[in-house]
Amino acid sequence: MSEREPVGDHLPDGPPVVVEPEGRPFGGSTGPAELHPSDPDAAGRAVLAELSRVLGADQVRTDPDTVRPYVHDEAEWAEHGTPLCLVRARGTADVAAVVAACARHRVPVVARGAGTGLSGGANAVEGCVLLSLERMTAIREISAGERLAVVEPGVVNDDLRAACAAQGLWYPPDPASAPWSTIGGNVATNAGGLCCVKYGVTRDYVLALEVVTADGEVVRVGRRTAKGVAGYDLAGLMVGSEGTLGVITEVTVKLRPARPAAPRTVVGFFDSLADCGAAVAAVTERGLQPAVFELVDRECLAAVNRWRNAGLPEGAAALLLAQTDLPEPAAAAEADAILAAFTEHGATDAMASTDPTEADALFAARRMAYPALEQLGMGMLTEDVCVPRTRMAQMLARIEEIGRRLDVRIATVAHAGDGNLHPLMLTPHDDPAARDRTRAAFDEIISAAVELGGTVTGEHGVGLLKRDGMERELGPRVVAMQRAVKAALDPHGILNPGKAV
Amino acid sequence: MSEREPVGDHLPDGPPVVVEPEGRPFGGSTGPAELHPSDPDAAGRAVLAELSRVLGADQVRTDPDTVRPYVHDEAEWAEHGTPLCLVRARGTADVAAVVAACARHRVPVVARGAGTGLSGGANAVEGCVLLSLERMTAIREISAGERLAVVEPGVVNDDLRAACAAQGLWYPPDPASAPWSTIGGNVATNAGGLCCVKYGVTRDYVLALEVVTADGEVVRVGRRTAKGVAGYDLAGLMVGSEGTLGVITEVTVKLRPARPAAPRTVVGFFDSLADCGAAVAAVTERGLQPAVFELVDRECLAAVNRWRNAGLPEGAAALLLAQTDLPEPAAAAEADAILAAFTEHGATDAMASTDPTEADALFAARRMAYPALEQLGMGMLTEDVCVPRTRMAQMLARIEEIGRRLDVRIATVAHAGDGNLHPLMLTPHDDPAARDRTRAAFDEIISAAVELGGTVTGEHGVGLLKRDGMERELGPRVVAMQRAVKAALDPHGILNPGKAV
């Protein structure tokens, strides 16, 4: 959810273009990748009839051209099944009607927002009702007195942020997909982003949810108050559950006061990954708290140079980018301290800047990394491992070693301050052997992250691509607990089956 | 958990003195309030035999003098049952052995820390094994590089905070019970405190837990990494679950860098609750973020005056106390802005101070409120309602009205910035009619909080005292979801049965 970058002109205007999976997809069991609605069985026919009666026939779409853009998210390596139909809900009542009908007839229902996910979490499962929340776009309330907002799930992240900013308020979670991804999808995947190194992830901002449960009932979990401990934290449990425990129909989020406008930016290039990791560790150990702390590796730098002739140092192993947003003069002091940590650990071309234009230019390498890599015209598989902060340099070295040994080109950006790395594996199209090597590299990177005490997914979600990795990470007992919770809240297994757990 | 104040010399030195409940207790079904171990039935005898064999007979205490201090927490109105025995675990293996034996024989197990809770959550249920974690006091790791600490559950909050401070780190959650309460208990109840208005509650700091599940297995949930979305947030689910989903045997918490030492303090007295509420609202609406923002009402002020001849304004309806901890000069600007919000809304005797001694004196009214009220020699029942911030003045007015109408003396302190109020109902001993009126006031306050969109418990937990209120707040469907989760993770209902859900 968090690392969808601007990769082409089509993205702001509509749902993603379908990319056919090549070769054997990851994920296993969602069925054949046909792009027209499946031939419904008796249960499917009953659901179609019931939904047409309750919602109106025009709300229950089965025509391939309409349905096609909704059958998968942006995880091009994840498979998808063929849906029974598509419903674009107009409100909670539509969602409740869909889930109730699916519950009665034991038909799976897959809820989705903008489809910007990178793990296949929103992909159609065979014979499902695809339930799009993208039309539920009302911002119901923004309250400075309560420091909260109440929104429908289809509100786009950037739209909420803009509406909050207009009132001097700030909704921090800022996944790279923010111009397109929806709050509902952000909540379903517990999206992160650049700010979370200082300000936390989506879960840290969810106060309350309206949810349609697996039996089609509408409930409210969580609270409007700043604090509350009445009962288990079901709202927190729903966050990151990828539509497998309920369908989110309203979200109440905490807000912060708007920040001062002009952050200070610090950059440094490093000749070795070890130096770079030491600099990151020094920033943390010295109690500094950058509001953004990113890493761009040599493959990305080279791609940006090739694409835009950017003149970035070709010999550098990595670039670190940090921003501080403290009030002045504390910001100046923090920027100086970050710069010192960089230079003491061997940074070249290190500098700090307060000029917004210059800061923007400095961040260009980070912002342009994905589109520059896209120019290579290769298939891209994005990883999302997260390791303990002090292990980041080790993890980067492991990724480089895996890429070299398996002959897979890997470019990495990372939320350095969080230890969250996004190695992008670049694979030539129509090269099955290369594809197999990439799959092997994907697995080895996951294993390395788990070995280093990390997690297989820092912010993108389990979806289909990380199910095996999650089981490796959590072990059978915790997986059994996860499944017990799933069975308790979705006893017939109709909610996004086969995903996440 | 959060509002246990220094109420007597006995508290720092040992477990709380037993206070006999008078009249009909709240909570209903934990059995007779005998203070010697129950006559065990066959299952109980089997558990005693098994634990004596596995742990050693000296670890399984049934002698009344040893067991008595452990049978209840500090909720003097909550009932408790008679335990089968007491085990003071020395480590995870002891906990696993106890839970496994209890699981085999379907005997309840009640885990507890320091017993400073205020809702009866740690009270013995009839025939249970009382499992004290107070001896598991190791601080296993404090890492500046990872900004985390790993501790056993019996570590006292203040001890962890001191150990962190020695390394330039800070563990923010600061319940008033911090000198005695344990991290395990803080996690089990999701404790709050003064700092949470700016820095969040215990849940916001829990990264990972080692937990003994209801079948006696040891699992790890959560993660050491800064971010992670692999599977449902079971660690978050355990936080605040009051020992009903598992027994916590190790806690990994996030830390922050230590704060600058000297905060600025702002105080103001208000003649009307409405003005006071407007001042609180103004602080929030203007985007100010005090690190502490407390309210002390007229009953508390009068009690402090009586006890210590403190010379506080007798006519004042309430005192507001705020602290800002921004770096200077931003702190000075924020203090000025808070002071302006106070004076613009009618504060008298309003002032700001940077002098630590003066700040301490200003906070004395807050700190001395509980012991001053204790001097009255009456029974005390503490409420913990939390309302939306903008409703605080209304809630205060409702509390005053309820007290007047039902002839119950109520003194209120509040975490004003959070809308979390702690009305203390003062009841003469040996006056059953007064006790009935207090019970009625307790219920009416809960109803008023729910009516105002609030919660029945902001930070103390449900325990026994808030079970009815919780059901009123959440409604039957959400309660059913809570119970489904409970049944999924504790199918035989042996973990702290009758509490929380």
UniProtKB/TrEMBL annotation, chains A, B:
GO molecular function, one term: FAD binding
Enzyme Commission numbers on file: 1.-.-.-
Record's compositionally biased regions (Basic and acidic residues): 1-12
UniProt cross-references to InterPro entries, sorted A to Z: FAD-bd_oxidored_4_C, FAD-bd_PCMH, FAD-bd_PCMH-like_sf, FAD-bd_PCMH_sub2, FAD-linked_Oxase-like_C, FAD-linked_OxidoTrans_Type4, Oxid_FAD_bind_N, Vanillyl_alc_oxidase_C-sub2
Region (Disordered): 1-41
Cofactor dependence: FAD
Keywords: FAD, Flavoprotein, Oxidoreductase
PROSITE patterns listed in its UniProt record: FAD_PCMH (PS51387)
Ranges for domain FAD-binding PCMH-type: 79-258
Alphabetical list of Pfam families matching this protein: FAD-oxidase_C, FAD_binding_4
Family statement: Belongs to the FAD-binding oxidoreductase/transferase type 4 family.
Protein name listed in UniProt: Putative FAD-linked oxidoreductase
Organism the protein comes from: Pseudonocardia autotrophica (Amycolata autotrophica)
